[in-house]
Design brief:
Largest sheet: 6 strands, parallel
Order of helices and strands: EHEHEHEHEHEHEHEEHEH
Number of domains: 2
Structural class: alpha/beta
CATH topology of the largest domain: Alpha/beta knot
Distance between the termini: 35 Å
Strand content: 15-25%
Amino acid sequence: MKEWIYGRNAVYETLRAGKRRAYRLKVAQGIQSSSRLEQTQRYATEKKLPIEQVPRRELDGLAEGHQGVALQADEYPYAHFSQLLDQARNSSVPPFFLLLDTLQDPQNLGTLLRTAEAVGVHGVILPQRRTATVSPAVVNASSGASEHLLIAQHNLAQAIEELKKANVWVIGLEGGENAQPLDQVRLDGALALVVGSEGEGMRRLVRESCDALLRLPMQGKIESLNAAVAGSIALYLAWQARGFIK
């Protein structure tokens, strides 16, 4: 299946990563040039893609927030779970994974993928169903970071057990009474961070499979943080605990 990736950063990173086959690039007539747009068109030319100058309203019919650029490409190519493990094994740093339990909002998923790529996770694991997937909206929300990540769809409870066998410590992000405060949870070794859905958090079996539950300290009057915000904070705390290693 083909789809339209839209937004300047998303299109640029999709072409730069070269993870999926692209077919044609559409650019709005009269669009203001920029270094990012010029590089995008150079990538398209190098890949021998047709570049079509089209009325902006044609792009409006493809997606909102297209910023004058859209790329037709194959659907996102998910990795196999074993590829994530292999990438971690071949790395010079301790394994670092992100597991997302049935997130529904493409913006939240995109934000977490962008953070995950920024802090150097070895892979992201999504459930096989009942979750937002790596759609064009998610690619756009991640500013194209999704294209530089290994993302697998796998049964999360099974993935957690396999990660444990690989001596990876699994920490679930949770705000409940059973969760431990930040200063009592080690985040500096082989780690998999689990973030639950926006409304219900982690499912029971996933929660019970974690080695420990972590709650973030909060001083204000609100009771919780958005899943993407909380997950991004935890990812950066883990990266800090790991010494900001690259």
